[in-house]
Amino acid sequence: MTGYDVDPCMKCEEMLQPFLDRELTEAERVEAEAHLARCSYCSKRYRFEVELRRLVRQAAIVQMAPELKQRLAALRTPLN
What pTM did the predictor assign? Predict the structure, then answer.
């Protein structure tokens, strides 16, 4: 018996990133979608990951205000 037999959420957890990256086989994708449809915990984790990815993509394209850059630079401590 594997951990997946006892806790299907464990398998979903391992499949989540490949699912989001569209790297699963068709059968794995169907399995993940079925689990997400019936498990509120994993569905919540999925929505969190989707939102996190959206925020990271957004942060990569939004320029930081010069004032904020200066304030952050002032907080740096020298590496000695």
Answer: 0.67
Q: Confirm whether 71 is domain-assigned.
A: yes
State how far the Cα of 20 lies from the Cα of 8, in Å rounded to an integer: 18
* pLDDT tens per residue across all 80 residues of the chain: 455 667 899 999 999 999 999 999 999 999 999 999 999 999 999 999 999 999 988 887 878 889 998 998 888 877 76
Number of separate domains in the chain: 1
- Give the type of residue at 33: E
Domain extent for 51? 3-75
